[in-house]
Amino acid sequence: MTSQYNFKKIVIVPTAKDFIDIVLSKTQRKTPTVVHKQYKISRIRQFYMRKVKFSQQTFHDKLSTILTDFPKLDDIHPFYADLMNVLYDKDHYKLALGQINIALHLIDNVSKDYVRLLKYGDSLYRCKQLKKAALGRMATIMKRQAQSLQYLEQVRQHLSRLPSIDPNTRTLLICGFPNVGKSSFINKITRADVEVQPYAFTTKSLFVGHTDHRYLRWQVVDTPGILDHPLEDRNTIEMQAIAALAHLRAAILYVMDISEQCGHTIEQQVALFESIKPLFANKPLLVVLNKTDVIRLEELNPEQKALIQGFINDDIPVMEMSTFSEEGVMNVKTEACERLLSHRIEVKIKSKKVEGILNRLHVALPKPRDGCTRPAFVPEKVIEKRLEKGPKIKKKTERDLEVELEDDYSLDLKKNYDLPADFKYDVIPEFWEGKNIADYIDPDIMAKLEELEREEELRVESGVYEKEEEEMDDEEKEIHRLAGKIREKKAIIAIEGRIGRSGGAPVMPRAGRKRERSVSRLRSEFEELGVDMSNKSGAHFSRTKSRSASRPPIKKARADSAGRVSSSSRVTPRDQSGIRNVELKAKAKKMGHKAQGKMNQFGKAGEADRHIAVKMPRHLYSGKRGIGKTDRR
Amino acid sequence: MPQNEHIELFQKRYGFRMDYQERQRKKKAREHKLQSKMAQKLIGIKGKIFAKKRYSEKVQLKRTIKAHEEKKTCKKEDGKVPEGAMPAYLLDRENTSQAKLLSSMVKQKRKEKAGKWDVPLPKVRAQSEAEVFRVLKTGKSRRKGWKRLVTKVCFVGEGFTRKPPKYERFVRPMALRFKKAHVTHPELKATFCLPIVGVKKNPSSPMYTSLGVITKGTIIEVNVSELGLVTQGGKVVWGKYAQVTNNPENDGCINAILLV
């Protein structure tokens, strides 16, 4: 049985016009749109039949979700069924849903008929007219349901805002005349924020709040006030309270206003009690006298006291409270909860389910071996000592202090420090005279340190830390020396490389760097390292023969004092060659950057990189157009 | 949890934002911009639907504006005389004499007799056989072409049984057989769904009449016992003629006008 106490999941019911628009536009979007009269007739027929069937399916789906989402009054708890009857009129509700159901079947029939007719359509024009007629008929059927749909939408909105009352759990139900203080009471014991105003019928529907007692969750239901007149004359607001009283198995708190500020005398309130007494059968009842801050029970006159006494004579507990001064409110709640709990336990014990649990429980007590008792043994001396000590002085705990001081209390952990009073609340520093205070916390720290040092000396003397040194011959020594030099040189090169690397400035490619590796450079570097380069005229690195047939005069490259050729410095760098002035240079640079940007974005290696990552991206080669034709892709 | 009218309660307790009224006012003032944007942007079917809706709105607006303006302007009276109004000195005259009444009655009767077959649709396009029938090839090698399939809507009547399929020349498919027609009463302007009794005459050909083919302009007989018409003699009228006004094979239903 699906009993929902939360009606917030009902699908939104659109208006008739919107409904038709939704379904027709969905049909247009989700079915093929192109058909020509030169197609085969079977293809044309299929095209139009699909449209008719699709519309019918969509209508069917949407209407059936509406029908299943709305609760059936026979399937839900009678409390909710009654409440919905009071609020929405059971007949109207059932009729509206019935009309929707009829519309559903009519639409199905229309679709069936027209699909059958479409099978005999022999031209595009005829099939198109038949499809138009079919969709038009379905739309007309929906247009006739406008009223039902509107009503159902209003019902849905109201249903979603109903408080979720669980009819089976522990509930306290508060009832009474209007303005006696029911809403104030529920505001006091729960976190429900019910409006409290001096005029009658401030609360116009049921409100629910939750409270705790004995580690259990209790529901508290606040009802609108009930007036004393027969059932037929009751209006919708009062009927909600009656529905709650009739169907919820709860503890009833009948609230009375003994100060008569609500506008009704105690006699009238007692009369109301008598008239709704049949609804209190089999439910734990509690009569609560509210507004005792204005007038107390003892101050009432004897006739009124007699009426109240009548309750006590009938075994109905009467309690006093005042929601204004908050005295007795907690007692009332506790009493009501206790009564309901014991009532529910009684009912459970009488039911069959308890047997199953009781059968499984067994409390095992040890069987006594013999008849003599064996109480706890306390030696006499201990007893004497205890008496000497006197009664245990109860130490004052922090909690007691907190309760005493209330708002002025603040937790002070330093007050029990073992220091003279003026040092207690000082801030502890971390350093003192250049030393860590933490190091000196231990009083024996100096002695321990000395011991450690002594131990260390002993170890050094005994030679624990001595290492064996190997004997190296000349060769190995030479190798060691050279290795050291190589390491040094490597480190220098690395550092120079790091210095030489300049941010994001563009680097000239290797081919552009002229004359980096020249013979003169070779010569100078080797001289630095100490190699003799004077008589290397026949070496492979020096040019012996010129390559051209006619021998032009050998131009001697201008070398500076270090022997480095300076020709490379005279060639104009590429970003300046062919450019007249500075502005053009800047412009050329900008253009270069702009052209490169797009290439970089697509991860291209260069201008000549024509690789395409995705040859047929799906978003360009599939799908229908939002508007327009899909002739070319 | 928010219960019952929590939104209204909140508004009652805490009121609205400081700029709430201003924002509402400004939002409303901006609405015409949104409308014009939609009117320019929407194209295709949505554009057409929007344009239609907007047109009807504009027509209403113009009408109300005109009505308001009429109140403001003070027009001179046209001097139009309402129909049937007579000057005071002519009021007491008898308009038609007895003789005139009789003669007009006779003329009326003659006219009725002459116009007995005056139908709402006097002329209809003739349907050729190629339109109404389609050749059905039969036989083992599909060479014989003597069977015909009726492509228009027809009426076969209750208790109709097909001829044995081997000898059946005109095939009337079940999907195209209709029993009811939507008949409109021309004066009452009300439409009823009445059962068809039979096909009286098909203007294109008597063969179609015998087959029961219903096309536009066909005279059919419908069962009007629902309407509860009574003759002058006190007898109940249960059958009347009606003429079909639409193409039933295109619309899937038969619409007819009652011939009174």
Descriptive account of the structure:
- The complex is a heterodimer of chains A (633) and B (260).
- With 633 residues, chain A is of the alpha/beta class.
- Among the domains of chain A are: 7-160, Four Helix Bundle (Hemerythrin (Met), subunit A); 171-354, Rossmann fold (3-Layer(aba) Sandwich), CATH 3.40.50.
- Chain A is 47% helix and 6% strand.
- Chain A contains 21 helices and 8 strands.
- Chain A has helices at 16-30, 41-69, 78-88, 90-118, 124-144, 146-160, 182-189, 236-247, 266-275, 302-313, 329-350, 353-360, 380-389, 398-405, 421-424, 445-462, 474-500, 519-529, 567-570, 582-601, 618-621, and strands spanning 171-176, 207-213, 216-222, 251-257, 285-290, 318-320, 431-432, 435-436.
- Chain A has a 6-stranded mixed sheet with strand order 2-3-1-4-5-6, sandwiched between helices. Chain A has a two-stranded antiparallel ribbon with strand order 7-8.
- In chain A, helix 1 runs antiparallel to helix 5, helix 2 runs antiparallel to helix 4 (90-118) and helix 3 (78-88) crosses helix 4.
- The model of chain A has no long low-confidence stretch (mean pLDDT 87).
- Chain B is an alpha+beta fold.
- Chain B is 34% helix and 18% strand.
- Chain B has a 5-stranded mixed beta barrel with strand order 4-5-6-7-8. In chain B, strands 1-2-3 form a 3-stranded mixed sheet.
- The longest helix of chain B has 28 residues, at 45-72.
- The radius of gyration of chain B is 32 Å and the shape is flat.
- The model of chain B has no long low-confidence stretch (mean pLDDT 90).
- The interface between A and B is medium-sized, with 27 and 21 residues.
Short description:
Chain B: Keywords: Nucleus, Ribonucleoprotein, Ribosome biogenesis, rRNA processing. The complex is a heterodimer of chains A (633) and B (260). With 633 residues, chain A is of the alpha/beta class.
